[in-house]
Amino acid sequence: MKINVEIDKGSGFCNGVIRAVEQAENYLNYSHKLYSLGDIVHNTMELKRLSEKGLVILDKEDIANLKDSVLLIRAHGEPPETYALAHRNNLQIIDCTCPVVLRLQDKIKQTWMEIEPAGGQIVIFGKRGHAEVNGLVGQTEGEAIVVENVHELSKIDFSRPIALFSQTTKDPIEFQEVANCISEKGKDVKVFNTVCRQVASRHKTLVQFAKDHSVILFVSGEASSNGKVLFDLCRSVNARSYTIERMEQIDLRWFKDGDNVGICGATSTPTWQLEQTKTKLYSLLH
Ligand code: SF4
Prior knowledge:
By secondary structure, this protein is α/β, with parallel strands linked by helices. The chain has helices at 15-30, 44-53, 60-64, 80-88, 99-115, 131-137, 172-185, 197-212, 225-237, 271-285, and strands at residues 4-7, 34-37, 55-58, 70-73, 92-95, 121-125, 145-147, 162-166, 189-191, 215-219, 241-244, 260-265.
């Protein structure tokens, strides 16, 4: 079968993930064990590669019992209580919170201090329970209201002031829809579009990439929320879009002679995995 395969130039890790993985590897080059609070990246293959170098993933309960060690905080960031716990347990922190997320945390904290005395509410458009969202809610002493879509707005009191923010990896179009609904219903609404610029521009270029190829092979970890958003975006413009986490999931029935296949991925998909997928596809189909 003759096919052409092209990798999306805009895919690969975002800057926040590149920075976190680099810092983890730099540390592991001279010390062979490093603890990370949660998956440093939502990608099983990359996690496997890093665990072979000595990265150990822990959850919140684990770190309650961890003492006198080095702990990496990933790009998503953490709420203030995590830093307090680390301090109590004498944990040295390698803080890889993405600078964009750090600025967002600061902005939410500052806005909360301003509007809370007047009965204001912070609303975050994001995935409930997601690590970044937990870190953002933590800036408001747990008081921020998280909404996942326009059907969840009944939790908001529209008679009180509202400041709306977004998780950095959300779909900018969906954010705009939520912002429009809240602005129509509320009296005093401030909208802060905090979708990461890198994510927003990837949305635009990915739509074009998906339109320009007859088949899309989207490589992403199943736990990646950004991966779900970007894959849905591909599928909305190209019905022959398929997602895989591992190469064994490739189904040859997806392809036909003459196809122009586009390979792309989430902000947590490493470039090496996209290259490997391309090589594998050529070997399976040629
Ligand atoms: S998506 Fe943007 S804000 Fe989020 S970690 Fe990546 S670079 Fe940072």
